[in-house]
Amino acid sequence: MTDLLIVGEGLCGLFAAVLASQHGADTTLVAQGRGGLSLSHGCIDILRDRASATTLRTLPQGHPYKLAGGENLDRALKKFLVITSGGGLAYRGGVEEILRLPTALGGVHATSFAPESLARASLGEIKSFTVGALEGFRDFSAELVRRNLARSGFPVPTVVSLPLLGDVPRRDLYAHDLALRFDDSEWRSELARAWKPRVGGLRLLGVPAVLGLWKHAEVIASLEDKLDLTLFEIPTLPPTLPGLRLERLLRRTALVSGVRLIEGSRALGLVDGRSGGERVAGVVVQAAGGPRTFPSDAVLLATGGTLHGGLIARQNGRILESVFDIPVQHSESRGEWTSERPLGAQPFASYGLRVNSEMRPVSDEGAPYFANLYAAGGIIGGSDRAVEGTRQGIDLLTAFRAVESALGVAL
Amino acid sequence: MTDLPGLAADMCLKCNICTAACPVAAVTDLFPGPKAVGPQEERFRHPRLPTADDSVAWCSGCGVCSRVCPHGVAVTEINVRAKAALAQQNGIGLRDRLISRPALLGRMGVRVAPLANAGLSNPLVRRIIEGILGVSRESPLPPFSSDTLRRRQADRIAAQPSDTVPATKLSVAYFHGCSTEYYEPRIGELAIAVLERLDCQVILPPQGCCGLPLQSNGLFDAARRYARSNIESLGPFASAGIPIVGTSTSCTLALKHEYRAILGLEGESVAGVAGATLDFFEFITLHRIAQLNRQHLRSTPLTVLYHPPCQLRGHGIGTPAMDVLRMIPDLEIVLSEAECCGIAGTYGLKREKATVAHAVGRPLFDQAHDVHPDSILSDSETCRWWIQNHTGLKSLHPLQLLAQAMNLE
């Protein structure tokens, strides 16, 4: 019997697992695959238009921030920063701050907290700078960044071409491949010697985010020292290192603090019959040999939304939550699930569970479905996280509040 | 896990989560990564036409990709099948036909154990074997035992469930696998001793090699013969409600999953055996926790590094050995941070793969160097032998530590 069983291994599930286990709870995390952190920029978006008491008030009723209490954002983020700095990953920003960072397409990403290596390129702070193209690395175009950034209000950077060492690779290299090479101190030292003549006189150099995976801080410090300049990173196509570093850090922290991790298995909800259907009993895991029951005092759904498996649209046109088959409010007509403008707000993006202030899924009448079932992150409806720029803020805040409720403690 | 890996390829979003997790792609650009050789390339494979690209041969079959895929794509299963088709197309050499038959090697080796062991531990002999066969001389070959488990425990052999004496105790059918039978019978005896102390009656059902090494080397027909024979002999035990408990996480994975998902075996008894099969520690956590709680576990002031084998992670049950080991007083357990130790069954034995396999295991060897534990624990024999060989540290099955704490060793 575990105290808290979490379903989902994205930012939300991993953060909840770390919080619960560090508080001393026996914690189990079950996931059908790893979540989307390694596809993300690793930043914490809280609200595109800057989170403040005023802007948070203007959010619609039923928005996850309103239910979980926007005033708790500070406490949740404080925990996040303690965990990440404890794992050697420095973040910069603030709940009520907006950092405007260059993207690999030369656009601007507005966020509230960013890994130090990204935050250094924040608009307003950055003066003249150079973007480095890594020769042979096809997932990043410095020229594209240069051309588009001019339209985004940034100073127009210069571009420098930088060699990579070794034989011509026998396949395309991913950002992840390069990051592992940068982790190797010998390779890195030799690379610095090759770069040195090309970067003479430069003060600030931006490169695709490949500066190490496990030894990121050491990689940046040693290269800056050898090249005598300041480095920053721009996130690339997946695998995206800033997100991957955060994922690895959270998983490692969770395991070290004793989380039982079950990857690769689908979980199906188990209702406690003896409670008259008022409580959940745990989950049944679709393990290799067949179904295995994992009983738990409480279950936290961190399964994500439409894109992530938390919601399933059935043949009959009903959308259900995927672990306990909890009904979800949605338009009856499939044609109304999406908007005609592909890049605009999408109705389906707001579909998800209704929860109360304790993060318990509730019916339309506001009654909890189960006394010991909680939900956090993208599975909660009521917000279009992509349009609002609230994705990671909702993940962290609702995970924090759900763990507090499930364990009956103040974290 | 879908039963139709080919179809599931269409579920792939190309998100590269598997690529970032793959321990082989991380160390060599000879391997394009699980997504590229799997769901991506699957579209260009025809069941009756040869394939032009042989990069899938670098897949070690560790299973990480299937485990991390958020969309239920059976990436490993696609790749293991493609790898087998490629091996059959290119011809399977003598080396792969030999190292994939631990039962055959074991039966021969046990008879001449002193001589065989002297030979296999001789560097010159290993050099010759490498030259002729292509078995890396750096990779460990375990010494044969002079006696088998079944000979030592002959009174436990039961051909049928009806052969077991009806007892008040819970009957357990022990699947010992080849390693315990021919190389490490002591581990089997300790497993039996622990189970009996926990009020079980342990029997040895008829069994052969699980067939996994054959499957990994592309010899699917031979693997299926072993698989069918095991299903036939274990099926009645499963039907009688007797748990089939194994101490080798690769054999138990074969019984639970590979027979169906990779070898394509079907039928009620295949699913029955899969459902009845339990890892040793999974069995204890599911059925014997009360009995274990009543045991006095001796203080064990040691630091151990626990590496869950990739096959165990593929069981989808977490790491039950950790749950049990945590009950041992004063034992400090550090969890391995490596996805795979590198050996992946027989992969690391091959001369052309040994360097890659060693690089895959580097994060674990480095961690072992930093932690400097009293011993390294792992539930799979090939991992243990490989890790001990590359770290110089004593490597144990976690049940050996439990047996010590129970004063059985």
Q: What is the third-level CATH name, the topology of the largest domain in chain A? A: FAD/NAD(P)-binding domain
- Based on secondary structure, the structural category of chain A is alpha/beta
**Global morphology of chain B:** globular
* Fraction of helical residues of chain A: 25-40%
For the biggest β-sheet of chain B, the strand order reads 2-1-3-4
Low-confidence stretches of chain B: none
Q: What is the C-alpha radius of gyration of chain B, as a whole number of Å? A: 21 Å
Mean pLDDT of chain A: 95
Please give the number of β-strands of chain B.
Answer: 8
The biggest beta sheet of chain A reads: 7 strands, mixed
Q: Regarding CATH, which class of the domain at 293-405 in chain B? A: Alpha Beta
What is the terminal-to-terminal distance of chain A?
A: 23 Å
Structure notes:
- The complex is a heterodimer of chains A (411) and B (409).
- With 411 residues, chain A is an alpha/beta fold.
- Chain A folds into two domains: 2-89 and 244-407, FAD/NAD(P)-binding domain; 98-237, Rossmann fold (3-Layer(aba) Sandwich), CATH 3.40.50.
- Helix content of chain A is 28%, strand content 20%.
- Chain A has helices at 11-22, 53-57, 64-68, 73-86, 116-119, 142-149, 175-183, 185-195, 216-227, 241-256, 385-388, 391-407, and strands at residues 2-7, 27-31, 91-93, 99-102, 108-111, 113-115, 130-134, 158-162, 204-208, 230-234, 260-263, 267-272, 279-286, 291-301, 311-313, 319-321, 373-375.
- In chain A, β12 (267-272) and β13 (279-286) form a beta hairpin.
- In chain A, α1 packs parallel to α12 (391-407), α4 packs across α12 (391-407) and α8 (185-195) packs parallel to α9 (216-227).
- Chain A is globular, with a radius of gyration of 22 Å.
- The model of chain A has no long low-confidence stretch (mean pLDDT 95).
- Helix content of chain B is 50%, strand content 7%.
- In chain B, strands 2-1-3-4 form a four-stranded parallel beta sheet, sandwiched between helices. A four-stranded parallel beta sheet of chain B has the order 6-5-7-8.
- Chain B has 409 residues and is α/β, with parallel strands linked by helices.
- In chain B, α7 (102-111) runs parallel beside α11 and α12 (185-197) crosses α23 (398-405).
- The interface between A and B is large, with 40 and 44 residues.
